[in-house]
Amino acid sequence: MGDQVITQDWAEFDPTAYLDEYYGDIGSENLELLRFLADAYRDVPVGGRMLDFGGGPTIYPLISAVGRIREIHFSDYLEANLGEVRKWIANDPRAFDWDEFIAQALEIESGRPATPQDVSERATEIRECVTLLTRCDASRQPPIEGAHEPYDILLTNFCAESATSDHWQWQSFMVNILSQLKPGGRLIMSALKGATRYSVGARSFPAVSIREDDLVEVLEETGFSAKSIEIRSVPADRPTRDYEGLMLAVAQKEPTGDRQGC
Q1: Alpha-carbon distance 214 to 218, whole Å?
Q2: Where are the extended beta strands (E) located within 77-171?
Q3: Which residue, among 106, 104, 100, 101, has the nearest Cα to 118 in the 3D structure?
Q4: Of 8, 73, 84, 108, which has the fewest CB atoms closer than 10 Å, so is most exposed?
Q5: CA–CA distance, 166 with 186 (Å, rounded to integer)
Q6: Nearest to 248 by CA among 185, 183, 165, 158
Q7: Angle between helices 79-89 and 15-23 (to 10 degrees)
Q8: DSSP state of 242
Q9: Would you write out the chain's pLDDT as a tens digit for each of its 262 residues?
């Protein structure tokens, strides 16, 4: 992978190759992601509205939201990624098979193995909970299409740091994304740690190298309570990855709103 040229032509991003490469099995990274998400959703108030910002072609972050979240708006920059999610929501047989992830998440939640019926019922609940799929662009303000009230819960995974190699631009993207969360709202996010790039099939895409202190700084500067910020670090599960690991974070926005005026 080291000799691959990094491209910023997002038309070259292949959702199918991405899903196969990063979600073809539940390795230690994905297992920790599912555990983290199950824990994170347990702490959110029941009945809120959630925005998944930059969700890519994936639905795994939504599995444990069911029962806690009233309504989910799903967004991504690429129409190709939205198309993959639409296929899954429509129960299209060509869609990526998330059943293994749903079964694992259910086992984490309940402590017992999930049956095929359990998996089917949870999949139906997720589909019913997602009421909007829309385009987003972290470089814009507002960063999602249409007029929307700020959200109770903001979910964003591997988004801002995976869209640029420039640290200042990453901060700008984060400010725009975090503006979609209402004062007092809850942030749930995952980010690559110490990344130089990430590979999707035969292509490599840019990533900015950030660590825990970078994440804490941008959260505090955008109105999040310092004592509410919790970050778990997980090492990369394969030596071929172009990043050190994952950072899994939750934080709560101050009730008074952003100090940045977002």
Answers
A1: 6
A2: 130-135, 151-157
A3: 106
A4: 8
A5: 27
A6: 158
A7: 70
A8: S
A9: 445 678 888 889 999 999 999 999 999 999 999 999 999 999 899 999 999 999 999 999 999 999 899 999 999 999 999 999 999 999 999 999 999 999 999 999 999 999 999 999 999 999 999 999 999 999 999 999 888 899 999 999 999 999 999 999 999 999 999 999 999 999 999 999 999 899 898 889 999 999 999 999 999 999 999 999 999 999 988 777 888 999 999 999 999 744 443 2
Partners of residue 252 on adjacent β-strands:
186
54 Rama class: left (phi>0) / alpha (psi -120 to 50) / beta: left
Q: What is the largest CA-CA distance in the chain?
A: 48
At 60, list the tokens: 């795994």
d(CA 72, CA 133): 9
Half-sphere exposure of residue 193: CA atoms within 13 angstroms, side-chain side: 20
